[in-house]
Amino acid sequence: MLTYYPGKTFLHRLDPTLKVLFAFTISTACFVFANIFVLLGILLFEFLLALSCGLWKWGLRSILGLLKLCALLFVIQILTYGDGDVLLRLYGDWVITFEGAEIGLILTLRITASALPLALMLRVTKPTALANSLYRYLHIPYKYAFAFGMAMRFIPIFAEEMAEIMEAQTARGVELDTRSFFKKIRLLMPLCVPLLLSSVRKIETATISAELRGFGLRKRK
Amino acid sequence: MPKNKQAALPPKMLPGEVLRFEDVRLSFGELKILQGVSFSVFAGEFVILLGENGAGKSTLLRLANGLLKPDIGAVAVCGHDTRQVKTSLIAKEVGFLFQNPDRQIFNKTIREEIEFGMKLHGIPTRPSYTEFRIPDFALDDDPFTLSRGERQRVALASVLACEPRLMLLDEPTVGLDDSEARQLMDAVKRRQRENNAAVLLITHDLELANAYADRKLLLERGRVADADILSWEDFSAQA
Ligand SMILES: Nc1ncnc2c1ncn2[C@@H]1O[C@H](COP(=O)(O)OP(=O)(O)O)[C@@H](O)[C@H]1O
Ligand SMILES: [Mg+2]
User: B22 CA to middle of ligand 2, Å?
Assistant: First the structure.
């Protein structure tokens, strides 16, 4: 989902540092504006960006996925916000108000629209190029740039591993291919342990190989 | 995005047929992996699938239990059309062993790991599983302390213990030494004979294939062909 997608489009060729700044700017903008239509506009703009990288399918799927993830937040928001004109009266004291629905919608759109540019940035930037440029232009100490690059490199491994673990458990009969989102989350919980364990082992291996290649030697002397 | 718009007629299965690929095509983006694969596997058969690295063997296996759906064509397994029946349901009758046992193992003890599938499918558990060469005293150990070969054995035991009608095994002998590999193959063969089950197993090891297969298939250039007609020399020439 967040793996590097090779290509030669404008965004692919854009300097990694600019891309990071650009992505963070759009993300921040989502928290400045509290207007549904502005947020929808930003979301559309982001979709067009994804389209320009040949990633429209991914863009669409990500938007839908993020909206789905935010559905719970939306429900909590509209149920707990009691002020304003009543839109719908539920059981007893539970009401849904116009304001509650609006705030819930804004929250949902904000999270979706602010996550997408960062995800897109990761998809169109080589992880090593990202670490190098952070080091060179933003003068982030190499140690941290390296750690960041490492973290970025582990995201796709992590995602891939999770997908494989889910496949393996589905093939054993765990109903991870259910349509119900909540059921899936509940079934997934026990699987987080093996994922974490094997990832920690991998990170240890990476650390050892970095140290073997002399990483951090200068500091220690 | 489902590309398969073909009328969803469940493919008819012959008596004893447990797996059937019907003109299966599958691409990952531009990359065409399978380009019209047709073959069947019958109950009581031990079939070995050969093919070069990257030929699409693992992909084919994931199609066989519905983890992947064909772009075009149909896969029927134990009377189910994989387009219509969820993999988690197919799992009741079809065992699947991944190349990497660590994808599967997550329970705290070896016993829990072996009995995980049995409990899911309502199969009564037993006090001992020595037929998989797992000694009783080890059953309460943490599977993550085991060697890779031992973990492979535990993963396989959890598949075999469910007594599936069809076993799909992806390179189960990789990383094992000769005698370990043979012992693993023997365990599979024994279970297959006892239950008149079917096996579709991937390996690179020709010697092993010749020793255990009732029938060999070769996946090459997106198609599956009967490999029994090929001799040793043909294989070495291709390798
Ligand atoms: N989910 C996937 N997305 C894209 N490409 C894939 C995916 N899974 C496998 N491939 C590619 O398909 C080809 C065949 O893979 P695989 O079935 O694992 O081959 P084999 O098991 O014969 O070595 C490889 O080139 C692999 O990179
Ligand atoms: Mg493979």
Answer: 21
